[in-house]
Amino acid sequence: MPSAKTRVQRKVQTPNLDVEAALAWLKENSSKKIREEMLPRYGINAPKSFGVSVANIQKLAKIIGRDHEFALALWETGWYEARMLTAFVDEPERVTPAQMDRWCRDFDNWGICDTLCFHLFDKTPHAYRKVEQWAKRRDEFVKRAAFALLASLALHDKSASDENFVKFLPLIEAGATDDRNFVKKGVSWALRGVGGRNHQLNSAALTLADRLAKSPERGARWVGKDVLRQLKRK
User: Fold this and answer.
1) Averaged over 206-227, what is the pLDDT?
2) Pick the CATH number of 94-234 from 3.30.50, 1.25.40, 3.30.1370, 1.10.357
């Protein structure tokens, strides 16, 4: 029987067979050590996982290439690494707002949330709108996704005007009052990302961070101090 890698490279026409080959490849390239360290070392809670490095996931993505329908089928498997793989094989221009909402509701750890935002969602035409929508949601990883996506846009969207990010500062300030670990870390990342774009935005980010650091809200104080510490290093 051909190896999983060969089967994936052949890209047979039946989507289920493609997915089976991809899962087999991931299993062949998994590591028990990686799987066992995911939660205690990295805080990633993913019971349905093989234990595959991001480098190997990206290697498989290069074998597969871009394929929207294949990405949809991969997501439905529920495997952590298969879902991580979608960030590198889906076609951003074909990703719909409904798909983004559906996948975002499935986020159950920071690894899948940040990877999808950083490598796929920020390249879609719906990204800025989703930041605004998700920031108002209650679910911890949906809300984190709003700020992880904003951080990704701040880093990757080189053509965006300062106003694109200034308008999100009140949203960041509101989000900073959420004391949940993964939300406040996402908010900090977003504010640091905005502040890292240029001198003008850096000044605006530092002003907000200073105000947050003096807040009576514990989460806001943490975000403010974290951002001040990080931005002043640069």
Assistant:
1) 98
2) 1.25.40
